[in-house]
Amino acid sequence: MIRTQIYLTDHQRVELEIMSKTLGKKQSELIREAIDRLIDQTGQSRRESILREAAGIWKNRTDLPDFSSIRSEWDRQ
Question: How far is residue 13's CA from residue 11's CA, in Å, rounded to a whole number?
Fold first, then answer.
């Protein structure tokens, strides 16, 4: 692990201390858990954004084969 210093507001420091005592965890552990949750949420949002941007990117292409007819050839009768 890498040591990092952060600045907290008085309110954040007090609430973190209360949570630490209540949960029986070190403040640094709670901070790491919060950062992990933020990373996970941000990563999910980023993935969703990329998928939304990619949706329909081929809709105006005229050089693609007719996928419906190709797919129907695969269907069992």
Answer: 5
CA–CA dist 26, 20 (Å, integer)? 6
Q: What is the pTM of this model?
A: 0.58
Angle between helices 10-23 and 27-54 (to 10 degrees): 110
Q: What is the pLDDT of residues 13-46, one digit of tens each?
A: 999 999 999 999 999 999 999 999 999 888 888 8
Give the residue ranges of DSSP H helices in the chain: 10-23, 27-54, 67-74
As a dihedral over the C-alpha atoms of residue 11, residue 13, residue 17, residue 18, rounded to 10 degrees, the angle is 10
